[in-house]
Amino acid sequence: MSKLFVSSSPHLRSNCSTRKIMLDVIIALLPSCAAAVVFFGWRALMLLGVCVLTCVFSEYICRIVMKREQTIGDLSAVVTGVLLALNLPANLNPLMAVFGSVAAIVVVKQMFGGIGMNFVNPALAARIILTVSFPTAMTNWIPTAYQSVDAVSSATPLASESGAYSYLQLFLGNHGGSMGETCALAILLGGIYLVLRKVIVPTIPVVYIGTAALMALILGLDPLEQILSGGIMLGAVFMATDYTTSPVTKWGKVVYALGCGVLTMLIRTFANLPEGVSFSILIMNILTPLIESATAPSAFGEKKGRRAK
User: Fold this and answer.
1) Of 35, 25, 40, nearest in space to 154 by CA
2) How far is CA 98 from the centre of its chain?
3) Is residue 289 domain-resident?
4) I need a surface site. Which of 45, 162, 171, 285 has the fewest CB within 10 A?
5) Are 88 and 130 in contact (CB under 8 A)?
6) pLDDT for 175-227, tens place per residue?
7) Nearest-CA neighbor of 132 among 100, 158, 110?
8) Total domain count, the chain
9) Is pTM, for the whole model, over 0.70?
10) Closest by alpha carbon to 33, among 55, 56, 49?
11) How far apart are CA 74 and CA 96, in angstroms?
């Protein structure tokens, strides 16, 4: 007769580890990294290396100082470094990238307990810190290797006149902007990979992008141009879907993504910034606990809002 074991939940466990998930995310980010190098050259490759190395080194030192078990092997610091680099302009001073990387790992992640404990996305928080600290450098876009310097201003499609770029240019990424947000094709390939690998479900990206498109239509803007411009695609696929900072409930994901889409378009339209993805996702990250509480399913035997007698 086999022995019976009594243990606390969860009783069903997945064989998927944090390292495997992060490795899948890194693989999904490779097309965007490749596109960044193709369009922006060695500067993009340098910033990717600087951000990844700084993030990994910062986490290593933090875990030693805090006398905690080392976690650099789970590759989460690598993912943070890649995501932060892809959110930066290719001509950013590497020292600023170092500053942002340290802020992402030390302040946003490790000071709150490490992976799974941070309440906002580290890469997005670091981008906002850099934008507030160095606004000129963070909005100084350079043309791609396939654009004429004389014919093209350094403005992104969001900051330029409507129709300045064709849909094909926007989709392929031949325009100014942060390194990883320009090529929608590369982001789409990465997103499809993550869905097929079941790392993410398409709820948040689809609802986020759909809401942004609907809001653009209501506000009298070109929906397709708005989706393919700026960081909506990158944010919806890789950052809004972060396990730690997004809701786990089905309807919570929908509410969260709706909020991201609405806030993004309101900030783009009415705020003194052409882009609103980082701030909108950060705000919804903060609201995630409330969203989960409001959308949590009732336990078996209980009615919504009260315990069964």
Assistant:
1) 40
2) 19
3) yes
4) 162
5) yes
6) 888 999 999 999 999 999 999 999 999 999 999 999 999 999 999 999 999 99
7) 100
8) 1
9) yes
10) 49
11) 26
